[in-house]
C-alpha cells in the first residue's frame, strides 16, 4: 500500500491537528511521525531507496523506542525483509501493515519535517498527495518560545542565544519556502496549502475542501476526532482538544518590538501568504535582520542544510 497523502509543515503550525482530522476519516488512516525511520536508515548508511535492507536493520527498527507508536506487530514487520527487499519495499510494507491494522483502504503519513523533502518523497511515490499546513509565523514564534522541543528546532542555531525572535523568523521562513518550492516542482494537482487560520475558523468547510483534494468523500466523523484517543505518547505531547481558534494571538501576546523584529526578517513571506504586517521596521531593525540572516545562512550551509531558491 503506497501512501496516499503526506501532511507536512513547519513545527507548531497545526500538523497534529490536521493529522487527527484526517485520521478520523473512515477511509484514510494517518501514521504518526516517521522521521526517526529515515534517521535510523541514514545513520546506518542506507540512503537510497534501492538499497537492500538486511535483517539487522529491521531488528534495529522494531527495537527503536518510537516503533511502538505505530502499533504494529514486530514479527510482521520483520517478515517484510527478504533477500531482495529494498529500503523502499520496507517502507511501503510498513504503510501497508498500518493501513491493514486500521481496517482502512488508504494510508497517509504526518511528519512535519518532511516539508523539506517533498521532491524526494514525490520521486518515491509519484501519486502521493501533499498537504502543506501553514500558520502565521508570528503565532508560530509564540509557540516556539514556549515549546520544550525548541532546543532541537530553532534553538539549535547559535543565533538563538542572541535573538530568538529573529532566529525563529528565519527558521519558519526557511521551512515554509522549502515546502512551497518543493510543492511547485511536482506534478500539478498533488500539492495543496492549507492555512491553519482557515482550518480553525471553518473546520467543516476546510475539511470538505481537503477531501475534494484527496479524492475521498467528506465525512462528518472528521470533526469528531476528539472521540478517538489511541496514542498515549501523542496525548502526552499534544493532548486532544476540540478545534479551537485563538490559542495563540501575536496581536495581544507579542510585544511590538518582537513583532517588528520578526517582520523585518520574514515580512515579505508573511505578505505573500496574505498575512498583513503590523509594523514598519526601522533602519536599525532592518540592519539587524540582515546580520541575523547572514549568520543563519552561513550556519545552515556549514551544516549541509538546504536553503530555498527564494532565500
Describe this protein's structure.
This protein has a single domain (5-27, 105-302), classed as Rossmann fold, CATH 3.40.50. The model has no long low-confidence stretch (mean pLDDT 93). The protein has a five-stranded parallel sheet, sandwiched between helices. The protein has 14 helices and five strands. Helix 8 (164-184) packs parallel to helix 13 and helix 13 (256-272) packs across helix 14 (283-302). By secondary structure, the protein is of the alpha/beta class.
Count of extended strands: 5
Unreliable stretches, pLDDT < 50, 5 or more residues? none
Counting copies of identical and different chains, the oligomeric state is: single chain
Q: For this structure, what is the CATH class?
A: Alpha Beta
CATH architecture: 3-Layer(aba) Sandwich
Q: Indicate the proportion of strand residues.
A: 5-15%
Please count the helical segments: 14
The shape is globular
What is the CATH topology assignment? Rossmann fold
In short:
Helices cover 48% and strands 8% of the residues.
Topology:
Elements: E1 5-8, H1 15-23, E2 28-31, H2 35-43, H3 55-63, H4 74-78, H5 87-102, E3 106-110, H6 118-124, E4 129-134, H7 137-144, H8 164-184, E5 191-195, H9 196-201, H10 203-214, H11 232-237, H12 250-253, H13 256-272, H14 283-302
Parallel strand pairs: 1-3, 1-4, 2-3, 4-5
Keywords:
Rossmann fold, 311 residues, protein-tyrosine sulfotransferase activity, P-loop_NTPase, Sulfotransferase, single chain, alpha/beta
Amino acid at each position: 500500500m503506497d501512501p496516499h497523502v503526506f501532511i507536512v509543515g513547519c513545527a507548531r503550525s497545526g500538523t497534529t491537528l490536521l493529522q487527527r482530522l484526517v485520521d478520523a476519516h473512515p477511509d484514510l488512516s494517518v501514521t504518526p511521525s516517521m522521521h526517526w525511520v529515515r534517521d535510523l536508515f541514514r545513520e546506518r548508511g542506507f540512503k537510497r531507496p534501492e538499497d537492500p535492507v538486511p535483517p539487522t536493520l529491521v531488528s534495529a527498527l522494531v527495537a527503536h523506542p518510537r516503533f511502538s507508536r505505530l502499533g504494529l506487530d514486530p514479527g510482521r514487520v520483520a517478515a517484510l525483509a527478504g533477500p531482495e527487499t529494498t529500503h523502499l519495499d520496507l517502507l511501503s510494507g510498513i504503510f501497508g501493515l498500518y493501513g491493514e491494522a486500521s481496517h482502512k483502504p488508504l494510508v497517509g503519513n504526518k511528519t512535519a519535517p518532511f516539508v523539506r523533502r517533498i521532491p524526494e518523497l514525490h520521486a518515491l511515490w509519484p501519486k502521493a498527495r501533499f498537504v502543506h499546513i501553514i500558520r502565521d509565523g508570528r503565532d508560530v514564534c509564540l509557540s516556539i518560545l514556549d515549546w520544550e522541543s525548541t532546543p532541537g528546532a530553532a534553538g539549535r542555531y547559535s543565533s538563538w542565544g542572541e535573538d530568538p525572535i529573529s532566529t525563529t523568523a528565519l527558521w519558519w521562513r526557511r521551512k515554509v519556502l522549502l515546502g512551497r518550492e518543493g510543492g511547485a516542482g511536482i506534478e500539478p494537482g498533488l500539492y495543496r496549502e492549507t492555512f491553519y487560520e482557515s482550518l480553525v475558523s471553518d473546520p467543516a468547510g476546510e475539511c470538505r475542501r481537503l477531501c475534494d483534494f484527496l479524492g475521498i468523500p467528506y465525512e462528518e466523523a472528521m470533526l469528531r476526532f476528539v472521540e478517538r484517543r489511541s496514542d498515549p505518547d501523542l496525548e502526552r505531547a499534544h493532548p486532544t482538544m476540540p478545534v479551537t481558534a485563538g490559542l495563540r494571538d501575536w496581536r495581544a501576546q507579542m510585544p511590538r518590538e518582537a513583532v517588528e523584529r520578526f517582520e523585518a526578517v520574514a515580512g515579505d513571506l508573511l505578505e505573500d501568504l496574505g498575512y498583513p504586517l503590523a509594523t514598519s521596521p526601522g533602519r536599525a531593525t532592518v540592519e539587524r535582520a540582515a546580520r541575523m540572516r547572514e549568520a543563519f545562512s552561513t550556519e545552515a550551509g556549514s551544516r549541509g542544510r538546504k536553503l530555498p531558491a527564494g532565500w
